[in-house]
């Protein structure tokens, strides 16, 4: 996947009445390449995927369906541009659909997959493909015979830890020949707290259980490194006189890689006082790789005691969307190929901040290009484009319309909404309201955003202060104390209210947790209770 055409605002004519004509036509041309996606299943995973789709400029959610009418209604209220199908089959039969995402309970996966394949759709399905192994093999054989475009969602495929496990082991590699792997996981309760609303199936043997739901992710990653596994022994413990899923699992497996035998131990338990724990330990003849907390914690231990530093990289869920987009297009979508396919800014926060900084330093063309990279092809046109409209093109009317469009698709606790709301207030002349919104957003946040800089530059007409804020946002100041002129240099954790040196960056965009509190966070954000798949510490 390459870049869609980048809109260069310097090429537009100077005619005020038609200054958006060329931009609109070229934007429409870019939008014609967008692929339509149907989403079946609107629980936790379905909602996550809808959010993800808005970050991917070449995929667009169009139709949704869920067996629970209230879930459909709530989704339509959040995303009014979506259409609800009358049934799962009705959704699959919709004209103009290119891909289907399946996030229902597992029993329905195989039938929905086969129906989608009958329609020629690209399919992304949550695991497992089927609760019946024989039926799953039949479907895999069908997929292979027809070269269908399909995938099962295992997000660890794009994890840095998996790439390290694939590259660090070997006779002539830093950690030597891999000879032992241990997978261990435990939960204080099952299902996990954030899954309580998903239904009973997660706690029952037929479709649920932690082995199928969680350990499968790590077994998938293991097979990516060592190839096929042979089961030697397994033992599961189930509650007596019930249909509930396993509470304990112990298994031994074996594999062969580069001629070396590898022993594998897998264990999982529902017990203890730790809400969620998981670790995969890869042992080689020269050292060990330890991957914890969904591969987000990486440690390399060399046998000779020397250091082996690893620069950890944040894995954004946009990685999955990029692979998915390549899959839909019938293009290669392995980690290496898909990760280099679309080198555009994928983090809206940074993209907008970068653009604003370019505009403040006089690089109008660069700012416009950055904004277009961010907004290109997105159904939800963001405040980033409004910024171009209001400050570069001097078109407050268009900016107000863009903001209204953006606001209609956002949630009140989102960073984007806070900035958009402030922009709308500023455009309407409500300076006091805009400043209050900005204060609500920036107060207590270690990363001072471009939102406050926008207030400084456009409302207070203080570009010097705005530049300082941008400099602070981009990490030019390594310690908060070194930037006394920047706003909110003394910060407090919103959980324990103590001064802090680091913050926790969560998918829900809450940035105000100290290092001590961040270590206690497991599955849920303590502020909005949103589920957490990954998190990244930001040092100031």
Task: Describe the fold and architecture.
By secondary structure, the protein is of the alpha/beta class. The protein folds into 4 domains: 34-153 and 319-328, Rossmann fold, CATH 3.40.50; 160-302, Dihydrodipicolinate Reductase, domain 2 (2-Layer Sandwich); 348-487, no CATH class; 491-540, Herpes Virus-1 (2-Layer Sandwich), CATH 3.30.40.10. Helices cover 37% and strands 17% of the residues. The chain is built from 19 helices and 15 strands. α13 runs parallel beside α15 (415-427). It is globular and about 65 Å long. 38% of the residues are buried.
Portion in beta strands: 15-25%
Number of helices: 19
CATH architectural arrangement of the largest domain: 2-Layer Sandwich
- Widest β-sheet, arrangement of strands: 8-9-10-7-11-12-13
The total count of strands amounts to 15
Low-confidence sequence ranges: 1-31, 336-354, 373-385, 405-418, 441-452, 472-491, 500-511, 534-540
CATH class of the largest domain: Alpha Beta
Write down the overall mean pLDDT.
72
Structural class: alpha/beta
The geometry reads as globular
At the fourth level of CATH, the homologous superfamily of the largest domain is Dihydrodipicolinate Reductase, domain 2
Count of distinct structural domains: 4
Distance from N terminus to C terminus (CA atoms, Å) equals 35 Å
How helical, in percent, are the residues? 25-40%
CATH topology of the largest domain: Dihydrodipicolinate Reductase, domain 2
Radius of gyration (Å): 25 Å
Major sheet attributes: 7 strands, mixed
């Amino acid at each position: 996947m390459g870049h869609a055409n980048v809109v260069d605002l310097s090429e537009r004519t100077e005619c005020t009445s038609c200054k958006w004509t060329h931009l609109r036509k070229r934007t429409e041309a870019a939008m014609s390449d967008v692929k339509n996606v149907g989403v079946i299943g609107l629980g936790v995973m379905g909602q996550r995927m809808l959010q993800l789709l808005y970050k991917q400029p070449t995929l667009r959610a169009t139709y949704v369906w869920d067996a629970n009418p209230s879930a459909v209604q709530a989704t339509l209220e959040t995303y009014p541009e979506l259409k609800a199908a009358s049934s799962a089959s009705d959704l699959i039969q919709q004209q103009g659909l290119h891909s289907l995402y399946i996030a229902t309970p597992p029993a329905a996966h195989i039938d929905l997959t086969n129906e989608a394949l009958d329609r020629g759709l690209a399919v992304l399905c949550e695991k497992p493909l089927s609760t019946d192994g024989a039926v799953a093999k039949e479907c895999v054989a069908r997929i292979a015979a027809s070269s269908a475009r399909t995938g099962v969602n295992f997000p660890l495929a794009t994890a840095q830890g998996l790439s390290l496990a694939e590259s660090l082991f070997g006779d002539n590699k830093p950690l030597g020949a891999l000879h032992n792997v241990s997978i261990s996981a435990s939960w204080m309760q099952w299902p996990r707290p954030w899954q309580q609303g998903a239904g009973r199936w997660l706690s029952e043997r037929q479709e649920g259980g932690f082995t199928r739901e969680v350990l499968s992710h790590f077994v998938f990653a293991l097979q990516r490194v060592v190839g096929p596994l042979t089961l030697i022994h397994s033992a599961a413990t189930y509650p007596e006189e019930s249909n509930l899923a396993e509470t304990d699992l112990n298994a031994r497996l074996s594999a062969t890689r580069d001629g070396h035998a590898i022993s594998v131990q897998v264990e999982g338990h529902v017990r203890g006082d730790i809400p969620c724990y998981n670790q995969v330990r890869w042992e080689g003849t020269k050292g060990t790789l330890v991957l914890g907390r969904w591969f987000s914690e990486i440690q390399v231990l060399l046998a000779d005691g020397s250091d082996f530093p690893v620069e950890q990289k944040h894995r954004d869920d946009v990685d999955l969307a990029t692979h998915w987009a390549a899959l839909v297009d019938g293009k290669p979508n392995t980690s290496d190929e898909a990760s280099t396919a679309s080198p555009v800014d994928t983090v809206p926060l940074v993209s907008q901040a970068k653009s604003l900084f370019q505009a403040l330093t006089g690089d109008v063309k660069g700012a416009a290009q950055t904004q277009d990279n961010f907004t290109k092809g997105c159904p939800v046109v963001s405040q980033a484009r409004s910024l171009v409209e209001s400050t570069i093109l001097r078109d407050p009317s268009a900016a107000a319309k863009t903001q209204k469009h953006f606001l209609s698709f956002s949630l009140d606790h989102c960073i984007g909404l806070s900035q958009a709301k402030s922009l709308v207030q500023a455009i309407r002349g409500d300076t006091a309201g805009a400043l209050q919104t900005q204060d609500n957003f920036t107060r207590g946040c270690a990363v001072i955003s471009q939102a406050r800089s926008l207030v400084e530059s456009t409302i207070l007409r203080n570009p010097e202060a705005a530049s300082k804020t941008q400099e602070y946002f981009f990490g030019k100041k390594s310690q908060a104390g070194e930037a006394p002129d920047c706003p909110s240099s003394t910060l407090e954790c919103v959980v324990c209210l103590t001064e802090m040196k680091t913050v926790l960056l969560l998918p829900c965009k809450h940035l105000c947790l100290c290092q001590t509190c961040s270590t206690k966070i497991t599955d849920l954000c303590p502020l909005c209770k949103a589920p957490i798949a990954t998190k990244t510490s930001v040092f100031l």
